Amino acid sequence: MRTRTIALFAAILLSTGIAAPSASADTTATRTLSGSITRPLLADGTRPSTECWVDLVPVGWYSGAYESAYLTANGCSAYGFNNVGSGEYTVQVVPATAATTYADTWLGDTPFPDRAQTVTVESESVSGLDIELLPAGGISGTLAVPSSGAAPTGPLAAYAYLIDEETGATTLADWAEAASDGTYAMGRVPAGRYTVEFADAGNPPTLRDAFLGGAAAIDSATVFDVTAGAVTGNIDGGPIPLERTVQRLAGPDRFATSAAIARRFAPGVPVVYLANGLNWPDALSAGPAAAHQDGVLLLTRQDVLPSVIAAELERLAPERIVVVGGPAAVSDAVYAQVAEAAPTVTRVWGADRYATSRAIIRDAFGERIPSRSIVISTGRAFPDALSGGALAALWDSPLLLIDGRASELNPETRSFLWGTNFLGMAIIGGEAAVTTWLQDQLEHFTNYSSSERIGGADRYDTNRRVVERFPAWAPEAGAAIVANGTGFADALGGVALSGSTRAPLVLTPSRCIPRASLEAALAARAMDWQLLGGTASLDARVEALTAC
Q1: Residue whose C-alpha is closest to residue 100's, from 234, 191, 172, 196
Q2: Which segments of 209-276 are extended strands (E)?
Q3: Other CB atoms closer than 10 Å to residue 145's CB: what's the count?
Q4: Mean pLDDT by 10-residue block, N- to C-terminus, for the chain (548 residues)?
Q5: Exposed (0-12), middle (13-18) or buried (19+): which is 336, by Cβ within 10 Å?
Q6: In this predicted structure, what is the pLDDT of residue 2?
Q7: Where do the domains of the chain lie, and which CATH numbers do they carry?
Q8: Backbone φ and ψ of 297, nearest 5°
Q9: Which helix or strand (DSSP H or E) is residue 139 part of?
Q10: pLDDT for 407-431, tens place per residue?
Q11: Distance of CA 261 to the CA centre of its chain
């Protein structure tokens, strides 16, 4: 069983010669990407035929396959995509095969997307991208509910995560729901080391996910090996009674709260962004930039570095500090003081908030955005940009601020966007924040001349729609970050924290959590809640997860 998210679904039989749709607005001549598919001899001496899907996936893209082709059993031996736009790609073959035969395989004959071979398409076609399918094994077991506690709201399910033994990274290899007798089976998993997550698949769940061995986190889970051609059985378990936890990250003021958030990061971080904590524009784009580099955002006064921030910089011992904004935002005196805390200190700024946003993105992401996706928000107000910053951090993408009420995109923004050929563009907020006219202009910088608007009736409704984009089924899922939506200071540091934990950032009034936002976070499997700020920002009713 496999859930498939495809932005452009091209159900085509390549053997018939029907071409996939054009993949890029910059395509002026037919460029193809092609290769062969080999089915190796299995341990039992057979080489079974199989139908298969072939997915063309741009490197770093956040939304699944870019183009997809279906091949019959006789045709699952070669593939080709026509009219491929310039860019960097990889390929995945997904066999629609019987159990314990062949597994999903990426270009480079690997089960790990992060290890997939990539290819750059420029002016010429690319061929010889051959893939040998990986032999598969299986996993089976029995799922059960705890003897005490609530009944599950949905079916029980098991999620198998393949572990990269060199890096410790995991990838979801397969999943299965329990049959009526509680048993489950997965039959297309590549050989390797695994753990399994057991879940109540209800929405929201009434039981808490648990990993093999009863662990609450994947780092503590029991692991086991799967061999090609064999089923590893007795992988039994189930979800555990639901116990939600609530923790505050707070201090007596915004700077102490900023330091408390930063203490969630271990010393030796690659980078710390330091921004003015009494004004918000410069810090908005800095949060996703910090997340992109596994870094932290800290706040300072313009003319004085708070002692709690100085102490936190000493603890973090970053490799680099980026001071955000000009001397009017962070003084030269503060710059000189933080220069003693890291080997490298850089000031990044521009003539205004929009130029500073572009400068931050160029410094962190380079001239060409690796993920080929971007989040755009107005720079006239902060609420939508806070929500957009968390989404950008999830996508490993930048947050670009524009003047959402301007009559035209200015030349500097056009120049910045030119040539990236974005695959994904999300505009945060309704038409009052970013006009439809500007959206139309922005879409010229995307592959399909299109974008996605994520906006609601107010700041909380917009935030709820962003929270809904966070994946429920990921080994990191299970947390939510809550910040006051009428202020900006506490939430700014929450963007980088959201990026490191892949937890949604939920904006709320001070007295309660909007019901729709609470439900969206629960649907994203939020069990552990981290509140940013003291009781003046989020009172006891928010701590009790009270809906309004």
Answers
A1: 191
A2: 210-211, 224-226, 231-232, 240-241, 245-249, 271-276
A3: 20
A4: 26 26 42 94 91 87 63 85 85 85 96 93 91 96 86 92 92 94 95 96 86 90 96 96 91 97 97 97 96 97 98 98 97 96 97 97 88 92 96 95 96 89 89 96 82 94 95 78 96 94 96 96 91 96 96
A5: exposed
A6: 25
A7: 14-132 (2.60.40.10), 136-241 (2.60.40.1120), 245-543 (no CATH)
A8: -115, 125
A9: strand 134-142
A10: 999 999 999 998 777 878 999 999 9
A11: 20
Whether cis (ω within 30° of 0) applies to the bond prior to 383 is no
How far apart are the C-alpha atoms of 421 and 92, rounded to whole Å? 22
pTM here is 0.82
Q: Reduced to 3 states, what is the DSSP secondary structure of residue 335? A: helix
- Collapsed DSSP state (helix, strand, coil) of residue 348: strand
H/E run at residue 197: strand 192-200
Q: Are 372 and 61 in contact (CB under 8 A)?
A: yes
What b/e string do you get for 23-32 counting C-beta neighbours within 10 Å, with b at 16 or more? bbeebeeebb
**Per-residue DSSP letters for 463-476?**
HHHHHTTS-SSSTT
Helix (H, G, I), strand (E, B) or coil at 332: helix
Strands (E), 446-543: 452-454, 479-484, 505-508, 528-532
Quote the pLDDT of residue 300: 98
pLDDT value for 28: 34
User: Tell me, what's the pLDDT at 60?
Assistant: 65
Rg (CA), the chain: 24
Dihedrals phi, psi of 255, to nearest 5 degrees = -75, -40
At 183 the three-state DSSP class reads strand
Per the structure block, which two tokens stand in for 58?
């741009």
Contact 34, 91 (CB under 8 A): no
User: Residue 389 and residue 382: Cα distance in Å, rounded?
Assistant: 10
Chain center to CA of 224: 27
In the structure encoding, which two tokens stand for residue 248, read together?
């505050």
The length of the chain in residues reads 548
What was the pLDDT predicted at 241? 87
Q: Are strands 296-300 and 320-324 parallel, antiparallel or unpaired?
A: unpaired
Amino acid at 110: T
CA 64/CA 74 separation, integer angstroms = 26
